[in-house]
Specification:
The protein is mostly beta strands and 181 residues long. The protein is 9% helix and 29% strand. It contains 2 helices and 9 strands; from the N terminus they run αβββββαββββ. The protein has helices at residues 35-46, 119-123, and strands spanning 47-52, 64-71, 80-86, 93-96, 103-111, 127-130, 152-154, 158-161, 165-171. Strands 1, 2, 3, 5, 6, 7 and 9 form a 7-stranded antiparallel beta sheet that branches. A two-stranded antiparallel ribbon has the order 4-8. A hairpin with an 8-residue loop joins strand 2 and strand 3. The radius of gyration is 17 Å and the shape is globular.
Length: 181
């Protein structure tokens, strides 16, 4: 929404400290990356600056948020990057996307260690997984290195968004005219 209004910069309340920070509530807690940290890193890697208009079917869920941009990396082939957010705490959504070619998927989901969590617990999780990984994403504490954040490749025109999922879908060969550099 901000990008369609030509907003050039979005800033956070805090980098370190308090509950809304990207790196935890230091010094009360050890430094740890929040789910927003990894979402921001992936968004900056995948999404370009040009915002695209989206069309939805009449049956779209009111709990779906969707945004389209030109791909940051695939400008020669008119690549398109979608950000899809399923805010539904119980139900998956299946979407048919009308873009051609292969697709790179980055599914970010809340992670909860230990006992089974309620959907309300998952909403407040301080950890996130990528593409159904077995554990949460985290920065290497000794080197500060980011984890590998590789996509799942698919040719399927339907995308499934499990409940409480952020899905970044990149269509590198979309040949979208506004995205050809």
């Amino acid at each position: 929404m901000m990008a369609t209004q030509s907003v050039q910069l979005m800033a956070r309340q805090s980098l370190i400290g308090y509950n809304y920070s990207l790196l935890g509530n230091y010094p009360d807690e050890p430094l740890r990356t929040s789910p927003d940290y990894f979402t921001t890193i992936l968004f900056r890697r995948l999404f370009g600056n040009r915002v695209l208009a989206l069309q939805h079917s009449a049956t779209s869920s009111s709990l779906l948020r969707s945004y389209a941009f030109c791909s940051r990396e695939h400008t020669a082939a008119g690549g398109v990057a979608l950000a899809l957010v399923n805010l539904d705490e119980q139900n998956s959504l299946t979407l048919k996307v009308g873009l051609p070619g292969p697709c790179e998927l980055y599914a970010l989901q809340p992670y909860w260690a230990g006992e089974t969590a309620t959907s309300r617990d998952m909403v407040s999780s301080r950890w996130i997984t990528l593409n159904g990984g077995t554990g949460p994403l985290s920065v290497d504490q000794s080197t500060g290195a980011l984890p590998e954040m590789l996509p799942v490749h698919t040719m399927h025109p339907k995308l499934t968004l499990p409940s409480l999922t952020i899905l970044f879908a990149v269509f590198p060969q979309a040949s979208y005219p506004a995205c050809v550099a």
